[in-house]
Amino acid sequence: MASSDPSDQDITPLWQYVAVTDYRPPAVTVEHTVSTGLSAFWQHFRTKEPPPETPFKTEEELQSIPGILLEQIAPAPDGQRAALALDEALTAWLDSVQMDQPVVLVLHPPYGMHGNILKAWAGLHEWRVLPPPTIGQIFRRETDWIMSGPADLTSWVLPNLERCYLRHAHGLTLVRRLLDQACSGALGRGVIGCDSWAWAFLRQAWSGATPPLLILQSFDQHHLARWFQSFASESGISDLIFRQADNGDYVLPPPTGIQNGSANISDFLQQLAAYSRGIPGIAHAIWRASLRTAPDESPKDAKTAKESTYQPTTLWVTPWRRLKRPAPTTDLLRQHAFILHALLLHNGLPAEWLSQLLPSSCQPGPATLYRLKSAGLIKQQRDGFWQISPLGYPAIRLFLKSEGYLMDDL
C-alpha cells in the first residue's frame, strides 16, 4: 500500500521552479527497467497484486464521466498558480539592476504547460508576449520578425521558443540570431519558454553561452494527490471522494471522518507519478482518462448535468492494471522513430512540414500518421499540428533513449 501520511508532503510547495541540476523525476522502484527495454517497462507498471475476487465496481457497472462534470472535477490547468511560483523564482532576477543576465530560459518537458504558464506570468507584470514567427518566416530567415509589433521591446516574454526553428538547413538562422540578440541584451529583458527536447537540439545548433535555466519541479504522488484534490475542492461538489473501482481503496486522501490508519490507500498515484515522469500535463491526461462513475450516480446527459443540483459523492478510478495505455511493439517504434523524434524536437508539426524535415525513406504519409494515431502514440491538434500523445510519451521516450537518439535532460 502507498503511504497515506508522508511527513514532508505538506512542506514542499506544490509548484516550484528549480535549476535543471535539481530536477528530480519520481523514482521507478525497479531501477533496471530503464536499461532493460520496453518489456521490463511494461512489466514494472503492471500491478503485482492479484485483482480482488469480488470488485467493488465491475467495469460493466461504470461509465465514462459526462464531459461537463469532468471539466468540473479535472479541468484543464490554466497556469496561474504555476506562474506565481515562477514569479517567486524570478524575484531576484527582476530586482537586479544589472544587465549581465538579460534573459532567463524556462524549460518544460512535453505537456509541461509552459506556454500557458509564461503567458500567465507575462500578465502579472504586463510584459509583452511575443508570438512565434510563421513557418514561412523561419524558412525565409526573416530575422527582423520580432520587431514587427509595437516598438517598445524592453520587457518581453517568448512562451514557445520551439516554434522559432526547424531542423533544416534553412530553419536555424532566425533562432540563432534571436538568441544572439536576446542574450546580448539588445532586446531588453526577456523570459523565454522552451520545450526541453527542442532545447536539447538548439543548445547544439547555437554556439552562444547558455542563459540561466529554470525548470518546473516534477510531481511525485503526494504532489499529484494535492493537485487533483484541489480541483475536486474547487469544483463546487461537496464530499467528493475518489476510490479505486476494484477494491475500494482511496486514491485521494479519505474524508476527515475516516481515520487514515483504518483506510486502505491505493498505489495508483505512485504508479501514475512514475509512469508520467512527474510531468503535470501527462499525469493530468491519464487521471482524466481513469475516472468513472456509476450510471445511477451521475447526470444522464449534458442538459441534466447543467440543471441537476445532485452530484455523486464517489467517483471511481480505473485500476492501474486495467487502464488502457499505448503498448507499441518495438518494430513499430523502430520503423517510425524518425517521425516520432522529429515531433518531439519541435513539440509538434503539421504533416506538410514534417515531410520537409525527414529523409525520403521516412516520409509520413496519411496512412502512417493515422497508424501511429491508432496505436495511441500521436494525436492531431485542432490547428493541424501532429504531436506525441501524453499517454504515448513515456514509451516513446524510453525507446528513443535505448536507441541512442538525442534526448532532453528531463
Short description:
The protein is of the alpha/beta class. Among the domains are: about 100-210, Rossmann fold; about 330-390, Arc Repressor Mutant, subunit A (Orthogonal Bundle), CATH 1.10.10.
Query: What is the CATH class name of the domain at 102-211?
Result: Alpha Beta
> How does the helix and strand content classify structurally?
alpha/beta
Biggest beta-sheet profile: 6 strands, mixed
Low-confidence blocks of residues? 1-9, 29-36, 299-305
**Secondary-structure element order, as H and E?**
EHEHHHEHEHEHEHEHEHHEHEHHEHHEEH
Strand content: 5-15%
Total DSSP E strands: 13
Q: Give the helix level as a range of percent.
A: 25-40%
Radius of gyration: 23 Å
Give the overall pLDDT as a whole number. Answer: 86
SS field, number of helical segments:
17
Termini, distance in Å?
A: 28 Å
Q: What's the CATH topology name of the domain at 102-211? A: Rossmann fold
Widest β-sheet, arrangement of strands: 1-7-3-6-5-4
Could you say what the CATH architecture of the domain at 102-211 is?
3-Layer(aba) Sandwich
Provide an overview of this structure.
- This protein has 410 residues and is an alpha/beta fold.
- Helix 10 packs across helix 11.
- Strand 12 (378-380) and strand 13 form a beta hairpin.
- The longest helix has 13 residues, at 221-233.
- The strands form three sheets. It has a six-stranded mixed beta sheet with strand order 1-7-3-6-5-4.
- The chain has helices at residues 38-44, 67-73, 80-89, 91-95, 114-125, 135-139, 173-184, 196-205, 221-233, 268-276, 280-290, 302-307, 330-335, 337-346, 351-356, 366-374, 393-402; strands at 17-18, 63-64, 103-108, 128-129, 155-158, 189-195, 213-216, 241-244, 291-293, 314-317, 349-350, 378-380, 385-388.
- Among the domains are: 102-211, Rossmann fold (3-Layer(aba) Sandwich); 330-388, Arc Repressor Mutant, subunit A (Orthogonal Bundle), CATH 1.10.10.
- Residues 1-9, 29-36 and 299-305 have low confidence and may be disordered.
